[in-house]
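TOPIC: backbone geometry
CONTENTS: sequence, C-alpha cells:
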Amino acid sequence: PPEELAGMTKRIPAGYIGTVDDTVAAVRYLLSDEARYVNGANIQISGAWGV
C-alpha cells in the first residue's frame, strides 16, 4: 500500500526507494577497470538504510 511505502521511504536516509538503475551503477563499477583492486567487498545498495 502507498502509505507503507511512504513510511518506509521516510526511514531511508537517501530519501527514496532504490531502483534497478541504482543496482546497475554498482555492478558497472565492479565490472570496470576502476574496480580492478577491489576484491571480497560487500557493497550495500540500500540508500544508507543500515548506517
Observations:
- The mean pLDDT is 91.
- The CA atoms of residues 9 and 15 lie 6 Å apart.
- The chain is about 40% helix and 0% strand.
- The two ends are 26 Å apart (CA to CA).
